[in-house]
Every structure is written in structure tokens, then in C-alpha cells.
Amino acid sequence: MSVEADAPGPLQGLRVVELASEHAAAAGKLFADLGADVVLIEPRSGHPARAIGPFLDDDPGPERSLWWWNYNTSKRDIALDLDDPVERVILDGLVDRADIVLEAEPPGSLATRGIDRARIMAGRPELIWVSVTPFGQEGPRRLDPATDLTLMAGAGPVWSCGYDDHSLPPVRGAGNQAANVSSVHAAMAALVALVERGASGLGQHIDLNMHAALNVTTEVSTVHWLVARETVQRQTGRHALPFMTAPTQIESADGGYVVLGFPPRAASSYQSILDWLEELGLTESFPDHVVLQLAVDRGGVTITDLGRDPVAVECFNAGRDAMALIAANLGAYECFEGFQRRGIVCGILYAPEDIAHDPHFEARGFPTPVHHEDLDRTFTYPGAPVVFTGTPWRIASRAPHLDEHRAEILATLESDR
Questions:
Q1: CATH class in words for 15-218+362-416
Q2: 58: how many CB neighbours lie within 10 A of its CB?
Q3: How many CA atoms within 13 Å lie on the side-chain side of 340?
Q4: What pTM value is reported for the model?
Q5: 201 CA to centre of own chain
Q6: What is the spatial distance between Cα 251 and Cα 229, in angstroms, rounded to a whole number?
Q7: CB 190 within 8 A of CB 100
Q8: What is the spatial distance between Cα 52 and Cα 70, in angstroms, rounded to a whole number?
Q9: Rounded (10°) CA dihedral 95, 96, 99, 101
Q10: DSSP letter string over 342-400?
Q11: Which of 110, 176, 330, 405 is the most buried (most CB within 10 A)?
Q12: Distance between CA atoms of 143 and 321, rounded to whole angstroms?
């Protein structure tokens, strides 16, 4: 099944009021690109995130922040002074017609400005209010200052990321991950609340703790500590575990790197590797080709085999070594494409600028052209992380200019009275 490019998004008709922020912007983008009407509220002077670089043509300006562009597509914008009682009336009108309020203000700060969430929700029991804060609304750390770095380090992901050489410091994942991870959790929670509201008619307050959201992305690291009091070890390009595992990033013949973290287990995969070694003239230089044949003859190996059968372990290791030999004799992309074509898991290490030109990503429509009519230029944006066959996703418009939609938003409020 496919959908028309201009078909309505699955969240069409959903009304979201978003108070501009760094921490929740990605959640608002998820809603907006799926068709929701997201009204972004900024201070009269513009939100400070408009000053986050890099900038178009390296020329700073509030309408040239690429960070702002990325996180605020498909949204409408109005600038309000929330300390002004007259302007707060406009906010009240927007919230009164909203399904979801999305904000990332410090706990208690909105109440001090006359915006009382509890009072508002008492009058609108069907409203879903999402608060995204570093440590949640309650608890001793709720007002602690935090940055992307401190959140990532304190919650655990940084401890798990780095290199086999532990004389090197841990590595923080780049790309605003604390906010991105938290926004995904916030959006999922809000959508679950919408489903629940469909049954009960009631909204709820979603208290998103960024520290907690990041902690659950540490995979087995937290579990190892809580269950066995074991500390995982950072490992280059692979899962952090209490013990060191075999390397998975292999340098290819052209100096690039491929990731071979999932050696074959199916008999057909072992046969594919044997055939490829033969095509490349590498069979005789790989004495363990007989072990690969053994893996074919025995019908492959299973995960449970690896825990109890030494022959299966030898087959598994031979598959990994054969993949590394192939990688060392081919260019990174040729290796990546060849393994993928044969149904064997293989990754490739890309520079950011290479990703948009990868044929796999292009075929999935990930590079997304967005026209900026104000500049008469078209730019390539990251597209949807998943492909929808039944419900469309699209970037409907560039990020808004400051207060760009004030007139139409006020006109809508007037017509709804």
C-alpha cells in the first residue's frame, strides 16, 4: 500500500501549543511533520536557540541558524511576552483549543508568570500537558542546572561510549542527543496519552525526566550494574560489556572502515561467504575455509550453540575472520554493498556529508528537499527515520521566522470564539 504525496498526515487535526525550547523542539517537529498544527510560541525578542550555530553561509542571524531550521520545520510561529497579562490572554486562547501543550520550562517557572498548569488542566480535563526537564518536576535535583554534556555523562551513555584504549577519555555522542532522546520519549508518551484519552476522555500531565530517558538508552549497562554490580567496559564501535569482545570495525583496502559486528549464523550466509572468497581468489589464503564448509554442512549455528558447542564457536569465529579478510581486500563501500546484497549484516562508517548521497538513503527518500521561498533556495534536510506506507510524513514548510504567523493565528482564535 502507498499513499499520495499530498495526503493528510496521520496527526492532521491535532492541535499542539509548543513553548519554544532546546529540549522539546524535536518532539514538536515530530508532531508537525506528521501533520499536527503546531503553534510555536517565542519571546518577543526571539528564542535564544535562534543563535545556535552553524549558520547559513557562516553568517549568523536569527533566521539563519541551521539548528533552528532543522528542529522547527512545519510549525507556525507567534511571539508573545508571557509576562504581559494581555499577551497571556492569547496564550490562554491557544491552550484552550489545544490537544497538547509541550514545554521545557524549569519546574515552577511558568506558575511564577501566571501560567498555572494545574489550574488550566482542572478546567480542561481532556488536555495533555508534556513537561520536558532535566530531572523531572519533583525531587531534590529538579532545579539543578544541566547541559547536554552533563546529562549524557550523568545518565550513563558517555560511560559506555569510547575506545578499547581506556587511557583515552569517554566520548559523548554528538548531535544534541539528550534533547533528541528525550523528545522521542515525550512524543511517544503523548501519543499513548492520546490513545488513552480516546477511551477515557481524560488527558494527563506527562513529566518527562531527561536523565531517566537517557539512562534507559544505556542498553545492558545499567542492568549489569543493578543485577551483578558489574561495570561495563567501553569498546570501539560495539556494545559496552563487563568483558572485552572481538573488534568489529575493520579497515578496508581504501582506508575506510566497515562494521562487521554480526558474523553469519545461517548456512546460506556461510555459503555466500565461501562463494565470495572464491570469486575474489582468496580461498587458498584463508585456511579456515574448511571450517566455513563445516558450518554449511551442519546447517549453520545458533545463539544457543555458541554457549555450549565449541565447534559452533569455531564456525562463528571463522565467519568473522573471513568477513575481515574480504573487507581488507575491498573498498569500504564495495564491501558494504556486497555483504548487504548477500543478506549479511554489514555497516559502513560515513562522514556526515556522505550520508545524504548514499544510494540506500536516497532510495528511501531520506534526503528531503525543502524550499525556502524567502531565500529562493532549496536545501537538503534529514528525512523521516522510518518509511510509512499507510500514513504520510512530510516537511510541510521551512522553520518559521519570528512572529511570522501572528496575524493568521490571531484570526483563527477570533473565528473560534
A1: alpha beta
A2: 8
A3: 13
A4: 0.91
A5: 31
A6: 35
A7: yes
A8: 11
A9: 20
A10: TT---EE---HHHHTT-HHHHHTT-EEEEEETTTTEEEEEE--SS--SSS-----SPPP
A11: 330
A12: 52
> Residue 292 is placed in which grid cell?
566455513
Inter-residue contact 184 to 207 (CB < 8 Å): no
Distance CA 341, CA 355 (A): 19
Task: Find out whether 33 and 395 touch, Cβ atoms under 8 Å.
Answer: yes
Type of residue numbered 239: H
Task: Give pLDDT tens digits for 183-239.
Answer: 999 999 999 999 999 999 999 999 999 999 999 999 889 999 999 999 999 999 888
Q: Quickly tell me which residue has 482564535 as its cell.
A: 413
- Write the CA distances from 262 to 240, 274, 307, 324, integer angstroms: 15, 17, 16, 12
Residue type for position 314: E
Query: Measured between alpha carbons, how far is residue 12 from residues 318, 392, 396 in Å?
Result: 53, 11, 12
Looking only at the bridges linking them, the beta strands covering 257-259 and 249-251 are: antiparallel
How does pLDDT run across 225-279, given as a tens digit for each residue?
999 999 999 999 888 999 998 889 999 999 999 999 888 999 999 999 999 999 9
Pairing of strands 15-19, 100-103: parallel
Q: Please, are residues 129 and 121 in contact by the beta-carbon 8 Å criterion?
A: yes
Q: How far apart are CA 353 and CA 368, in angstroms?
A: 14
> Is residue 318 within 8 Å of 277, Cβ to Cβ?
no
Cell numbers 512530510: residue? 394
**What stretch of H or E contains 24?**
none
Which residue's entry shows cell 539543578?
A: 144
Record the cell numbers describing residue 228, joined without a space: 551483578
Percent helix, strand and coil across the chain, each to the nearest 5:
40, 15, 45
Burial (0-12, 13-18, 19+ Cβ within 10 Å), 249: middle
